[in-house]
Specification:
Blueprint lengths: L1 E3 L5 H4 L9 E5 L7 E6 L6 H9 L6 E5 L4 E4 L5 E4 L15 H16 L6 E7 L1 H15 L14 E5 L6 H9 L2 H9 L2 E6 L7 H13 L5 E6 L8 H14 L8
Parallel strand pairs: 3-4, 3-7, 7-8, 8-9, 9-10
Antiparallel strand pairs: 1-2, 2-4, 5-6
């Protein structure tokens, strides 16, 4: 199932830029609906490819929402346009941060989750650039606001990042440690980071550093899993780890529910 959504919500309107999002694919739960997770694809990809993989996971109680990023000029490709959650000059935490683009995509995720029932747990996950956006959403959730100062209103239950990195890593410590409430939220938010040691697109060291920065700034409920020989893609072992972690963190019922 899919539908079109072409507005990014308050995050993009506040910056004066409008982003036209592509098609959003929804995987309905096969059992009792207990959780909804927005899953974000990588650079140049679309929501369809991940929806097909997620549909076959043994997680019948999760509804997956797989949006498609806007097509925009991307610096790492010399300004050539492709689907991207934000502009990026290099796939690491070392490059300049496109706060405007990150805020718009984090707001788009929040909008997609805002209509879920109150008794449903919500989360965000992603791969590569999608993972970076998911981790940025985690920091917005902890701070209670976007990078532009607008209020972030979604209470995330889980965040997953596969083969990604942490945007705005350099300034995160001051933002979290400067607020007792932000520190409390950061400490209670479960995060799962996974990274292959053979990744030649987003180097393993960037994933490792992101996990270290998040842990050291107060995200204490963080699991970092590594995979020898894994490149910039996912494998069944990694997705099994994701399934087991989600089942535990979200207290999901079994397949017969």
């Amino acid at each position: 199932m899919s539908y079109n959504r072409t507005t990014a919500g308050s995050g993009s309107r506040a910056t004066g830029r409008s982003f036209e999002y592509g098609r959003t694919h929804v995987v309905r739960p096969k059992g009792k609906h207990q959780a909804t997770i927005v899953w974000l694809h990588g650079l140049g990809d679309n929501g369809s490819s991940w929806s097909q993989l997620l549909e076959n996971l043994p997680l019948p109680n999760i509804k997956w929402i797989c949006p498609t990023a806007p097509s925009r000029p991307v610096a790492i490709f010399g300004g050539f346009p492709c689907t991207a959650w934000f502009d990026v000059g290099e796939l690491s935490e070392d490059g300049p941060d496109d706060i405007e683009g990150l805020d718009a995509s984090a707001a788009h995720v929040a909008n997609l989750l805002s209509t879920e029932p109150n008794d449903i747990k919500v989360g965000v996950g992603g791969f590569s650039m999608g993972a970076a956006t998911a981790l940025y959403s985690a920091t917005c959730c902890a701070q209670g606001k976007y990078g532009n100062g607008n209020r972030y209103t979604i209470d995330l239950s889980v965040v997953i990042g596969l083969s990604g990195w942490l945007p705005c890593a350099r300034s995160l410590r001051n933002k979290i440690e400067g607020s007792h409430e932000a520190a409390r939220r950061a400490a209670s938010l479960p995060l799962l980071l996974c990274h292959g040691k053979g990744d030649d697109v987003v180097q393993y060291t960037h994933g490792e550093k992101s996990a270290t920065v998040l842990s050291s700034t107060g995200f204490r409920n963080l699991t970092f899993r590594t995979y020898n020989g894994l490149g910039h893609y996912t494998v069944p072992q990694e997705m099994d780890d994701v399934c087991n972690w989600l089942t535990l963190c979200l207290n999901l019922e079994g397949p017969r529910s």
